[in-house]
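Run log // design_07
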């Protein structure tokens, strides 16, 4: 118990002296797990492992030929998704956000603090061209960063068929829309700022506030209600969901907009003949 309290071990299993006697007499034998619940994930993992051991211990020595109990068979629609692949969509969105912040908004504030904007105003360019240049510089860098990370990350993470043309086209559209959406949001936040330190402070806060509730690390369905409320207004949530649907499932998610309805002909996807469809329907019925 001293090692448990000092953090050297995470749990202690206690088996009472009368455990074997109670087990043979079928008189409710029990064992105890004394866990360090400061880390709920470790404690829950240890409890689940010991529960599996107890379940196997309680199984009959000679199993029944036809089990009388109901059984659940889990059928997975998609191949197994390692956690490395699960983290890839959030990493792409974070790379886009960092390029939008560093390559667009922070440079904008630094130029304003150095007085370079006055130099822009004496040039023959129009205000619309100046604003468009500021709004295009960040997304262009973000699109390049997101595309490179998406391509290299898909290969490293082992995404199935990462270079399908229709998937790459949809992913590129999502990257472009995410870049313009984030640069517009950050331009709206920082357009009135003059202190060069303020965007750097906001950058650190937004990293945490936008990234973790988006579902990039943990599914939003398991969040408490207040975190779900943040995820509902978090722009990262919709981008991460779009990248997950395209990278992990190669399908259109519930949050993807109209481009999922594109019907692009592909030689890899040939339409089934009518007779084959009718035979398949007959088998189902």
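design_07 sequence
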């Amino acid at each position: 118990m001293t090692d448990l309290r000092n953090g050297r071990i995470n749990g202690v299993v206690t088996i009472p002296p009368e455990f074997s006697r109670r087990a043979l007499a079928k008189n409710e034998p029990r064992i105890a797990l004394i866990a360090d619940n400061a880390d709920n994930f470790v404690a829950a993992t240890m409890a689940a492992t010991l529960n599996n051991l107890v379940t196997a211990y309680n199984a009959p020595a000679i199993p029944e030929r036809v089990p009388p109990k109901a059984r659940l068979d889990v059928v997975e629609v998609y191949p197994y998704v390692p956690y490395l692949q699960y983290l890839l969509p959030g990493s792409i969105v974070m790379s886009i956000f960092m390029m939008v912040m560093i390559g667009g908004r922070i440079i904008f504030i630094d130029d304003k603090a150095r007085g370079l904007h006055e130099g822009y105003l004496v040039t023959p360019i129009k205000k619309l061209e100046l604003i468009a240049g500021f709004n295009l510089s960040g997304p262009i860098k973000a699109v390049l960063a997101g595309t490179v990370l998406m391509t290299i990350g898909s290969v490293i993470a082992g995404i199935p068929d990462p270079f399908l043309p229709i998937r790459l086209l949809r992913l590129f559209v999502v990257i472009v829309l995410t870049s313009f959406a984030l640069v517009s949001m950050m331009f709206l936040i920082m357009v009135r700022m003059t202190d060069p330190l303020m965007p750097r402070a906001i950058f650190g806060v937004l990293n945490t506030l936008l990234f973790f509730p988006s579902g990039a690390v943990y599914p939003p369905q398991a969040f408490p209600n207040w975190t779900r409320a943040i995820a509902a207004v978090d722009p990262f949530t919709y981008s991460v969901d779009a990248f997950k649907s395209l990278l992990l499932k190669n399908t259109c998610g519930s949050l993807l907009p109209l481009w999922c309805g594109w019907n692009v002909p592909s030689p890899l996807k040939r339409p089934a003949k009518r007779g084959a469809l009718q035979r398949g329907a007959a088998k189902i019925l």
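The first helix runs from residue 2 to 5.
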